[in-house]
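About this split. The held-out portion is used to measure sequence recovery: a designer receives only the C-alpha coordinates and must propose an amino acid at every position. Recovery is the fraction of positions where the proposal matches the reference. Here is one held-out target exactly as it appears in the evaluation file.
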Protein backbone atom coordinates (compact mmCIF):
# COMPACT_ATOMS: atom_id res chain seq x y z
CA UNK A 1 0.00 0.00 0.00
CA UNK A 2 1.31 3.44 -0.93
CA UNK A 3 0.25 6.06 1.60
CA UNK A 4 0.15 9.64 0.33
CA UNK A 5 -0.10 12.79 2.45
CA UNK A 6 -1.45 15.97 0.87
CA UNK A 7 -0.38 19.34 2.29
CA UNK A 8 -3.18 21.81 1.61
CA UNK A 9 -6.84 21.14 0.74
CA UNK A 10 -7.37 24.09 -1.57
CA UNK A 11 -8.09 24.09 -5.32
CA UNK A 12 -5.26 21.73 -6.27
CA UNK A 13 -5.19 19.70 -3.03
CA UNK A 14 -8.88 18.81 -3.22
CA UNK A 15 -8.32 17.88 -6.89
CA UNK A 16 -5.44 15.55 -5.95
CA UNK A 17 -7.62 13.91 -3.27
CA UNK A 18 -10.36 13.41 -5.86
CA UNK A 19 -8.06 12.01 -8.57
CA UNK A 20 -6.51 9.46 -6.16
CA UNK A 21 -9.90 8.38 -4.78
CA UNK A 22 -12.22 8.65 -7.83
CA UNK A 23 -9.63 7.29 -10.30
CA UNK A 24 -8.11 4.83 -7.85
CA UNK A 25 -8.49 1.93 -10.31
CA UNK A 26 -6.39 3.59 -12.99
CA UNK A 27 -3.79 5.03 -10.59
CA UNK A 28 -3.41 1.65 -8.87
CA UNK A 29 -3.01 -0.09 -12.22
CA UNK A 30 -0.26 2.36 -13.25
CA UNK A 31 1.67 1.73 -10.04
CA UNK A 32 0.91 -1.99 -9.67
CA UNK A 33 0.12 -1.50 -5.99
CA UNK A 34 -2.71 -0.15 -3.84
CA UNK A 35 -2.61 3.58 -3.15
CA UNK A 36 -4.63 5.83 -0.86
CA UNK A 37 -4.59 9.30 0.67
CA UNK A 38 -3.71 8.63 4.30
CA UNK A 39 -3.48 12.27 5.49
CA UNK A 40 -4.56 15.72 4.38
CA UNK A 41 -3.01 18.63 6.25
CA UNK A 42 -5.03 21.84 6.47
CA UNK A 43 -5.76 24.32 9.24
CA UNK A 44 -9.43 24.43 8.31
CA UNK A 45 -12.30 22.01 8.96
CA UNK A 46 -14.43 20.66 6.08
CA UNK A 47 -17.67 19.47 7.73
CA UNK A 48 -19.52 16.88 5.64
CA UNK A 49 -16.56 16.31 3.28
CA UNK A 50 -15.14 12.75 3.32
CA UNK A 51 -11.69 14.34 3.66
CA UNK A 52 -12.54 14.74 7.38
CA UNK A 53 -11.63 11.04 7.83
CA UNK A 54 -7.99 11.77 6.97
CA UNK A 55 -7.72 15.46 7.91
CA UNK A 56 -5.01 16.52 10.32
CA UNK A 57 -3.86 19.91 11.64
CA UNK A 58 -0.54 18.55 12.88
CA UNK A 59 2.31 18.14 10.37
CA UNK A 60 4.34 16.04 12.81
CA UNK A 61 1.72 13.32 12.53
CA UNK A 62 2.69 12.97 8.84
CA UNK A 63 6.44 13.33 9.41
CA UNK A 64 6.46 10.69 12.15
CA UNK A 65 4.37 8.18 10.22
CA UNK A 66 6.82 5.85 8.46
CA UNK A 67 4.02 4.38 6.36
CA UNK A 68 3.75 7.71 4.47
CA UNK A 69 6.28 7.52 1.63
CA UNK A 70 4.99 10.37 -0.59
CA UNK A 71 4.15 13.94 0.40
CA UNK A 72 2.25 16.18 -2.04
CA UNK A 73 2.82 19.90 -1.40
CA UNK A 74 0.00 21.97 -2.90
CA UNK A 75 -0.22 24.80 -0.39
CA UNK A 76 1.43 27.36 -2.68
CA UNK A 77 3.63 30.27 -1.59
CA UNK A 78 7.12 30.04 -0.15
CA UNK A 79 6.44 29.44 3.53
CA UNK A 80 5.60 27.16 5.19
CA UNK A 81 5.77 25.12 1.95
CA UNK A 82 9.58 25.35 1.82
CA UNK A 83 10.06 24.24 5.44
CA UNK A 84 7.49 21.46 5.14
CA UNK A 85 9.01 20.09 1.91
CA UNK A 86 12.52 20.04 3.40
CA UNK A 87 11.28 18.34 6.57
CA UNK A 88 9.53 15.63 4.53
CA UNK A 89 12.72 14.98 2.55
CA UNK A 90 14.81 14.95 5.74
CA UNK A 91 12.37 12.33 7.04
CA UNK A 92 13.11 10.15 3.96
CA UNK A 93 9.89 10.87 2.06
CA UNK A 94 9.70 11.79 -1.63
CA UNK A 95 7.85 14.99 -2.46
CA UNK A 96 5.98 16.36 -5.44
CA UNK A 97 4.59 19.85 -5.80
CA UNK A 98 2.66 22.16 -8.11
CA UNK A 99 4.31 25.20 -6.50
CA UNK A 100 6.27 27.13 -9.14
CA UNK A 101 7.29 29.88 -6.72
CA UNK A 102 8.92 27.27 -4.48
CA UNK A 103 10.62 25.44 -7.36
CA UNK A 104 11.92 28.62 -9.01
CA UNK A 105 13.29 30.01 -5.73
CA UNK A 106 14.50 26.92 -3.84
CA UNK A 107 14.36 24.12 -6.45
CA UNK A 108 18.16 23.81 -6.77
CA UNK A 109 18.66 23.39 -3.01
CA UNK A 110 15.70 21.05 -2.58
CA UNK A 111 16.83 18.86 -5.51
CA UNK A 112 20.29 18.60 -3.90
CA UNK A 113 18.76 17.75 -0.54
CA UNK A 114 16.56 15.06 -2.09
CA UNK A 115 19.55 13.47 -3.88
CA UNK A 116 21.54 13.50 -0.63
CA UNK A 117 18.68 11.79 1.20
CA UNK A 118 18.09 9.19 -1.54
CA UNK A 119 14.57 10.39 -2.36
CA UNK A 120 12.97 12.40 -5.19
CA UNK A 121 11.51 15.85 -5.68
CA UNK A 122 9.21 16.22 -8.71
CA UNK A 123 7.19 19.21 -9.93
CA UNK A 124 5.36 18.37 -13.18
CA UNK A 125 2.36 20.58 -12.32
CA UNK A 126 4.47 23.67 -11.60
CA UNK A 127 4.59 24.55 -15.32
CA UNK A 128 1.67 24.29 -17.71
CA UNK A 129 -0.78 22.80 -15.17
CA UNK A 130 -1.99 19.55 -16.67
CA UNK A 131 0.41 19.56 -19.64
CA UNK A 132 3.07 16.86 -19.18
CA UNK A 133 5.90 19.03 -20.52
CA UNK A 134 8.41 18.53 -17.70
CA UNK A 135 8.41 14.74 -17.91
CA UNK A 136 8.64 15.00 -21.70
CA UNK A 137 11.70 17.27 -21.43
CA UNK A 138 13.31 14.94 -18.90
CA UNK A 139 12.50 11.60 -20.48
CA UNK A 140 11.68 12.03 -24.15
CA UNK A 141 13.41 15.14 -25.46
CA UNK A 142 16.85 13.78 -24.72
CA UNK A 143 18.50 13.61 -28.14
CA UNK A 144 18.48 17.27 -29.22
CA UNK A 145 20.16 20.57 -28.53
CA UNK A 146 17.32 23.01 -27.99
CA UNK A 147 17.87 26.52 -29.27
CA UNK A 148 14.45 27.92 -28.43
CA UNK A 149 11.73 27.29 -25.84
CA UNK A 150 8.73 29.56 -25.74
CA UNK A 151 5.26 29.29 -24.43
CA UNK A 152 1.99 30.71 -23.25
CA UNK A 153 2.40 29.73 -19.63
CA UNK A 154 -0.32 31.68 -17.87
CA UNK A 155 -4.01 31.00 -18.34
CA UNK A 156 -5.28 34.22 -16.76
CA UNK A 157 -3.37 36.54 -19.10
CA UNK A 158 -4.17 34.41 -22.13
CA UNK A 159 -7.87 34.62 -21.24
CA UNK A 160 -7.61 38.42 -20.90
CA UNK A 161 -5.74 38.86 -24.21
CA UNK A 162 -8.19 36.56 -26.03
CA UNK A 163 -11.19 38.43 -24.70
CA UNK A 164 -9.66 41.84 -25.50
CA UNK A 165 -9.03 40.67 -29.06
CA UNK A 166 -12.38 38.95 -29.63
CA UNK A 167 -14.64 41.54 -28.01
CA UNK A 168 -12.73 44.79 -28.47
CA UNK A 169 -12.75 45.44 -24.73
CA UNK A 170 -10.12 47.29 -22.71
CA UNK A 171 -7.63 45.57 -20.45
CA UNK A 172 -9.28 46.98 -17.30
CA UNK A 173 -12.80 45.87 -18.33
CA UNK A 174 -11.69 42.34 -19.14
CA UNK A 175 -9.62 42.06 -15.95
CA UNK A 176 -12.63 43.06 -13.86
CA UNK A 177 -14.85 40.55 -15.68
CA UNK A 178 -12.23 37.81 -15.20
CA UNK A 179 -12.06 38.61 -11.48
CA UNK A 180 -15.86 38.56 -11.16
CA UNK A 181 -15.94 35.12 -12.82
CA UNK A 182 -13.14 33.82 -10.57
CA UNK A 183 -10.68 33.34 -13.47
CA UNK A 184 -8.36 36.05 -12.17
CA UNK A 185 -7.23 36.52 -8.57
CA UNK A 186 -8.43 39.52 -6.55
CA UNK A 187 -4.76 40.46 -6.46
CA UNK A 188 -3.85 39.71 -10.08
CA UNK A 189 -0.34 41.20 -10.05
CA UNK A 190 1.59 37.90 -10.31
CA UNK A 191 -0.32 36.99 -13.47
CA UNK A 192 -0.74 40.32 -15.29
CA UNK A 193 2.77 41.60 -14.57
CA UNK A 194 4.27 38.34 -15.90
CA UNK A 195 5.82 37.15 -12.60
CA UNK A 196 4.06 33.77 -12.77
CA UNK A 197 5.23 33.22 -16.37
CA UNK A 198 8.74 34.31 -15.33
CA UNK A 199 9.02 31.53 -12.73
CA UNK A 200 7.68 28.97 -15.21
CA UNK A 201 10.11 29.85 -18.02
CA UNK A 202 12.94 29.84 -15.44
CA UNK A 203 12.00 26.26 -14.48
CA UNK A 204 11.75 25.12 -18.12
CA UNK A 205 15.07 26.78 -19.00
CA UNK A 206 16.81 25.19 -16.01
CA UNK A 207 15.56 21.76 -17.10
CA UNK A 208 16.32 22.13 -20.80
CA UNK A 209 19.88 23.43 -20.24
CA UNK A 210 20.54 21.45 -17.05
CA UNK A 211 21.69 24.56 -15.21
CA UNK A 212 20.01 26.73 -12.63
CA UNK A 213 18.31 29.71 -14.26
CA UNK A 214 17.55 32.46 -11.78
CA UNK A 215 14.09 33.92 -12.40
CA UNK A 216 15.39 37.22 -11.04
CA UNK A 217 17.72 37.48 -14.08
CA UNK A 218 14.82 37.22 -16.54
CA UNK A 219 13.57 40.48 -18.04
CA UNK A 220 9.84 40.52 -17.28
CA UNK A 221 7.08 42.63 -18.77
CA UNK A 222 3.36 41.94 -18.35
CA UNK A 223 0.26 42.79 -20.39
CA UNK A 224 -1.08 45.86 -18.57
CA UNK A 225 0.02 48.30 -21.28
CA UNK A 226 -1.66 46.50 -24.19
CA UNK A 227 -4.43 48.68 -25.61
CA UNK A 228 -7.42 48.09 -27.89
CA UNK A 229 -5.54 49.80 -30.68
CA UNK A 230 -2.71 47.26 -30.34
CA UNK A 231 -5.32 44.51 -30.76
CA UNK A 232 -6.78 46.23 -33.82
CA UNK A 233 -3.37 46.71 -35.47
CA UNK A 234 -2.35 43.12 -34.64
CA UNK A 235 -5.52 41.78 -36.27
CA UNK A 236 -5.01 44.02 -39.29
CA UNK A 237 -1.56 42.44 -39.67
CA UNK A 238 -3.17 38.95 -39.32
CA UNK A 239 -1.42 38.45 -36.00
CA UNK A 240 -2.39 37.86 -32.38
CA UNK A 241 -0.78 39.17 -29.18
CA UNK A 242 0.39 36.57 -26.68
CA UNK A 243 2.33 36.80 -23.43
CA UNK A 244 5.37 34.58 -23.93
CA UNK A 245 7.94 33.17 -21.62
CA UNK A 246 10.83 32.69 -24.06
CA UNK A 247 14.42 31.48 -23.94
CA UNK A 248 16.63 31.42 -27.03
CA UNK A 249 20.22 30.34 -27.36
CA UNK A 250 21.96 31.65 -30.47
CA UNK A 251 25.36 32.90 -31.64
CA UNK A 252 24.82 36.19 -29.74
CA UNK A 253 24.11 34.55 -26.35
CA UNK A 254 21.35 33.03 -24.25
CA UNK A 255 18.35 35.31 -23.91
CA UNK A 256 15.38 34.80 -21.63
CA UNK A 257 12.39 37.09 -21.26
CA UNK A 258 8.72 37.42 -20.47
CA UNK A 259 6.92 39.87 -22.73
CA UNK A 260 3.88 40.27 -24.96
CA UNK A 261 4.75 39.26 -28.54
CA UNK A 262 2.95 39.68 -31.84
CA UNK A 263 2.50 36.24 -33.33
CA UNK A 264 1.76 35.42 -36.96
CA UNK A 265 -0.74 32.85 -38.19
CA UNK A 266 2.10 30.47 -39.14
CA UNK A 267 3.18 30.24 -35.48
CA UNK A 268 1.69 27.20 -33.70
CA UNK A 269 0.85 29.42 -30.70
CA UNK A 270 -1.16 31.93 -32.76
CA UNK A 271 -4.47 30.24 -32.03
CA UNK A 272 -3.88 29.10 -28.44
CA UNK A 273 -6.73 30.95 -26.77
CA UNK A 274 -8.60 31.44 -23.50
CA UNK A 275 -7.11 29.75 -20.43
CA UNK A 276 -5.15 27.24 -22.53
CA UNK A 277 -1.36 27.06 -22.30
CA UNK A 278 1.14 25.80 -24.87
CA UNK A 279 4.87 25.27 -24.96
CA UNK A 280 6.93 25.04 -28.12
CA UNK A 281 10.48 23.71 -28.18
CA UNK A 282 12.83 23.81 -31.16
CA UNK A 283 15.55 21.19 -31.33
CA UNK A 284 18.37 20.70 -33.83
CA UNK A 285 17.10 17.22 -34.82
CA UNK A 286 13.43 17.24 -33.85
CA UNK A 287 12.73 20.80 -35.04
CA UNK A 288 9.43 22.04 -33.53
CA UNK A 289 7.40 20.17 -30.95
CA UNK A 290 4.43 21.71 -29.18
CA UNK A 291 2.57 20.79 -26.00
CA UNK A 292 -0.94 22.09 -25.50
CA UNK A 293 -3.52 21.79 -22.74
CA UNK A 294 -5.09 23.28 -19.66
CA UNK A 295 -2.52 25.28 -17.74
CA UNK A 296 -4.57 25.70 -14.59
CA UNK A 297 -7.68 24.41 -12.82
CA UNK A 298 -8.20 21.91 -10.04
CA UNK A 299 -8.47 18.59 -11.87
CA UNK A 300 -6.08 19.14 -14.82
CA UNK A 301 -3.37 20.35 -12.39
CA UNK A 302 -4.17 17.51 -9.97
CA UNK A 303 -3.89 15.01 -12.81
CA UNK A 304 -0.29 16.17 -13.40
CA UNK A 305 0.46 16.04 -9.65
CA UNK A 306 -0.84 12.47 -9.46
CA UNK A 307 1.31 11.63 -12.51
CA UNK A 308 4.25 12.54 -10.27
CA UNK A 309 2.83 10.47 -7.40
CA UNK A 310 2.71 7.46 -9.74
CA UNK A 311 6.30 8.11 -10.86
CA UNK A 312 7.46 8.34 -7.24
CA UNK A 313 5.57 5.19 -6.24
CA UNK A 314 7.02 3.23 -9.17
CA UNK A 315 10.56 4.29 -8.28
CA UNK A 316 10.65 3.76 -4.52
CA UNK A 317 14.26 3.46 -3.32
CA UNK A 318 15.68 4.87 -6.60
CA UNK A 319 17.00 8.41 -7.15
CA UNK A 320 15.65 9.51 -10.51
CA UNK A 321 17.97 11.42 -12.88
CA UNK A 322 16.03 14.67 -12.78
CA UNK A 323 16.67 18.37 -12.25
CA UNK A 324 19.62 20.64 -12.90
CA UNK A 325 23.00 21.62 -11.52
CA UNK A 326 23.65 24.61 -9.26
CA UNK A 327 26.04 25.99 -11.92
CA UNK A 328 24.09 29.12 -12.88
CA UNK A 329 23.13 29.77 -16.51
CA UNK A 330 24.33 33.27 -17.42
CA UNK A 331 21.81 35.23 -19.47
CA UNK A 332 22.64 37.89 -22.04
CA UNK A 333 21.17 41.41 -22.14
CA UNK A 334 17.72 41.18 -23.76
CA UNK A 335 18.29 44.56 -25.40
CA UNK A 336 20.70 42.70 -27.72
CA UNK A 337 18.11 40.03 -28.65
CA UNK A 338 17.16 40.48 -32.30
CA UNK A 339 13.56 40.33 -33.49
CA UNK A 340 11.28 42.37 -35.68
CA UNK A 341 9.44 45.04 -33.69
CA UNK A 342 5.89 46.35 -33.75
CA UNK A 343 5.92 50.09 -33.03
CA UNK A 344 2.79 52.23 -32.60
CA UNK A 345 3.26 55.99 -32.93
CA UNK A 346 1.19 59.14 -33.22
CA UNK A 347 0.27 59.82 -36.86
CA UNK A 348 2.33 63.00 -36.67
CA UNK A 349 5.48 60.89 -36.19
CA UNK A 350 4.77 58.54 -39.13
CA UNK A 351 6.98 60.20 -41.73
CA UNK A 352 9.89 60.69 -39.30
CA UNK A 353 9.52 57.02 -38.40
CA UNK A 354 9.63 55.91 -42.05
CA UNK A 355 12.74 58.03 -42.62
CA UNK A 356 14.56 56.41 -39.71
CA UNK A 357 13.96 52.82 -40.77
CA UNK A 358 15.04 51.53 -44.17
CA UNK A 359 12.59 48.68 -44.31
CA UNK A 360 9.28 48.99 -42.46
CA UNK A 361 5.85 47.58 -43.12
CA UNK A 362 3.01 49.95 -42.29
CA UNK A 363 -0.09 48.29 -40.82
CA UNK A 364 -3.29 49.69 -42.28
CA UNK A 365 -6.17 49.91 -39.77
CA UNK A 366 -8.81 52.42 -40.96
CA UNK A 367 -10.77 52.19 -37.67
CA UNK A 368 -7.88 53.74 -35.73
CA UNK A 369 -7.49 57.49 -36.03
CA UNK A 370 -4.48 59.50 -34.92
CA UNK A 371 -2.15 56.51 -34.59
CA UNK A 372 -0.09 54.44 -37.01
CA UNK A 373 1.72 51.13 -36.47
CA UNK A 374 4.75 49.63 -38.18
CA UNK A 375 6.61 46.36 -38.21
CA UNK A 376 10.35 46.79 -38.54
CA UNK A 377 12.99 44.46 -39.90
CA UNK A 378 14.87 42.27 -37.43
CA UNK A 379 17.12 44.24 -35.05
CA UNK A 380 18.07 44.56 -31.40
CA UNK A 381 16.16 46.86 -29.05
CA UNK A 382 19.37 48.86 -28.65
CA UNK A 383 19.43 49.57 -32.41
CA UNK A 384 15.68 50.24 -32.47
CA UNK A 385 15.94 52.77 -29.64
CA UNK A 386 18.86 54.53 -31.32
CA UNK A 387 16.96 54.78 -34.62
CA UNK A 388 13.84 56.15 -32.95
CA UNK A 389 15.92 59.23 -31.96
CA UNK A 390 13.39 61.86 -30.81
CA UNK A 391 10.24 59.89 -31.78
CA UNK A 392 8.26 58.98 -28.65
CA UNK A 393 6.62 55.63 -29.47
CA UNK A 394 3.25 54.81 -27.92
CA UNK A 395 4.01 51.11 -27.89
CA UNK A 396 6.90 48.77 -28.69
CA UNK A 397 6.33 45.01 -28.83
CA UNK A 398 8.48 42.20 -30.17
CA UNK A 399 7.32 40.06 -33.09
CA UNK A 400 8.05 36.34 -32.85
N1 LIG B 1 -2.43 31.87 -12.14
C1 LIG B 1 -1.95 30.79 -12.95
C2 LIG B 1 -2.52 30.94 -14.35
C3 LIG B 1 -2.34 29.48 -12.34
O1 LIG B 1 -3.41 31.78 -14.57
O2 LIG B 1 -2.07 30.24 -15.26
C4 LIG B 1 -1.54 28.30 -12.81
O3 LIG B 1 -0.18 28.43 -12.54
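Reference sequence for scoring:
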Amino acid sequence: MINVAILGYGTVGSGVYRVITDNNDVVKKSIGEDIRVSHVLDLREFPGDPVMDVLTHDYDEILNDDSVSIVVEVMGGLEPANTFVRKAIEAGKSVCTSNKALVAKFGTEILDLARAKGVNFLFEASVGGGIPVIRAINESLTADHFDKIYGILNGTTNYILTKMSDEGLSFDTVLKDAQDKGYAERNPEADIEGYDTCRKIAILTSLVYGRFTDFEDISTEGITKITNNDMIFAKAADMSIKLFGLTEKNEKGTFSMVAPFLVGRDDPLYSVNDVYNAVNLHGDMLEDVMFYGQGAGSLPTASAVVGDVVELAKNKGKVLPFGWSADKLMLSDVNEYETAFYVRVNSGDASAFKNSFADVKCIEAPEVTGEVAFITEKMSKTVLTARLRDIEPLQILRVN
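Annotator remark: The mean pLDDT is 97.
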